[in-house]
């Protein structure tokens, strides 16, 4: 196992450490392709990037972003779509051109073709230089649920009830959480040149413990990261207990 582990005191320091890494990378390579994640975990990172943009002027003009996933059936007019999440939490506050931001289209007529298009798009962009990831309680990365093949490319998934329950906190009721999503596959994620996995809070401790102590298995999607050479885990002390 070749993870670099950075222990942060709490959520805010995890977010700050992650932001420093992202900003450092942007300074090194201004036309970076940045892989982005949604969920509660990276929100603090996005706040730090916005603060830094305002205070230090780090520019996103030449950057391209690709998001990991999107719910099927939700578009930008729905506040729970990941398209709207990214606009609300990050894109509206930085100078990234909208045409440089890519998210799978959750309302495509043909989701399977959309998945193929998205995979090709990432390839045309030259691949992801730095991918941000969160982790689900069941070890999911992106929306790749346990049992997903490690050779999967961008594809359509049926969400587990536990994932829908976990994400229902943002919806009015669990029935409103879509039952399917489109997500970059495990193999697509592993093609990223560098990966930053973030985890915060005691609820994520069992998943992080599993990741660090158990073998590689398709039953625990995040374990695929052990097959990658450049993964940094930034976790706070509660998630590392
Ligand atoms: O950061 P959270 O909200 O705990 O979510 C963890 C993971 O679950 C997802 O939101 C999908 O359920 C991922 O996008 C995210 O990485």
Automatic annotation (TrEMBL):
Lineage start: Bacteria, Bacillati, Bacillota, Bacilli, Bacillales
GO MF term list: glucosamine-6-phosphate deaminase activity; identical protein binding
Top enzyme class: hydrolase
Keyword Hydrolase: yes
Any one Pfam family match given in the protein's UniProt record, by short name: Glucosamine_iso
Record field: catalytic activity: alpha-D-glucosamine 6-phosphate + H2O = beta-D-fructose 6-phosphate + NH4(+)
Species whose genome carries this gene: Peribacillus saganii
Gene: nagB
Domain (Glucosamine/galactosamine-6-phosphate isomerase): residue spans on this chain: 17-231
Alphabetical UniProt keywords: Carbohydrate metabolism, Hydrolase
Metabolic or biological pathway, per its Swiss-Prot or TrEMBL entry: Amino-sugar metabolism; N-acetylneuraminate degradation; D-fructose 6-phosphate from N-acetylneuraminate: step 5/5
Residues annotated as the enzyme's active site: 69 (proton acceptor), 138 (for ring-opening step), 140 (proton acceptor), 145 (for ring-opening step)
Highest rank taxon of the organism: Bacteria
GO biological process: carbohydrate metabolic process; glucosamine catabolic process; N-acetylglucosamine catabolic process; N-acetylneuraminate catabolic process
EC number: 3.5.99.6
Recorded family membership: Belongs to the glucosamine/galactosamine-6-phosphate isomerase family. NagB subfamily.
One of the record's GO cellular component terms: cytoplasm
Name of protein: Glucosamine-6-phosphate deaminase
Protein function: Catalyzes the reversible isomerization-deamination of glucosamine 6-phosphate (GlcN6P) to form fructose 6-phosphate (Fru6P) and ammonium ion.
